[in-house]
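User: Can you help me understand a structure? I only have the sequence.
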Amino acid sequence: MHVILLGPPGAGKGTQAVSIAEKAGIPHISTGDMFRTALKHGTPLGLEAKKYMDAGELVPDDVVVAMVRERIQKPDCAKGFLLDGFPRTIVQAEKLDEMLVQAGLTIDRVLNLECSAATVLKRLTGRRVCKACGAIFHVTNMPSKQAGVCDACNGVLYQRDDDKEDTILNRLEVYNRQTAGLIDHYRRRALLTDINADVPREETLAQMMVLIRA
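Assistant: Let's start by predicting it. Here is the structure, written out as tokens:
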């Protein structure tokens, strides 16, 4: 099973991707995680990506595609994979198509998490991160035992700049602008299914697992 997971910031892609991968027995491939791993280990592609990231520029499509190609060729992807954060644009989607054709593979499903701006704002503005260990909490959904203090290490919890309302609204605008064509691309191919991500996350996961197991 080869699956693509789409959705705006705050829709719960990361959390849902981990759960889907575990239940379906396929690896969760996150481009963000791949960049961090490649940078940590100093791989050639990681060093190439670092040049652009250090300059505050977007990593070119060719570099991102090469990293994805390298990842899906690993043995744990033999039974399938879940792509999270890739593709982000039509160009990346077309390059992914070419890559899969060369490998004799196809995308089986594209799951598009639909989430209202109100829900996204509620989820992201309430998020708090530990400055010391990076643990994540939420003021209402998953509060720490002591306000402002990390349960894991007693570090200070803070709100990231990109979790503030103005920044979130801008991120949503950018996401919608970037992915509108991508959603149409997969919908025209009858691969895309819209998933209600405004409901509790357990319900969203259940919707997706029904499709993946079909």
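Now, to help you interpret it: The longest helix spans residues 165-188. The chain has a mean pLDDT of 90. Let me know which part you'd like to focus on.
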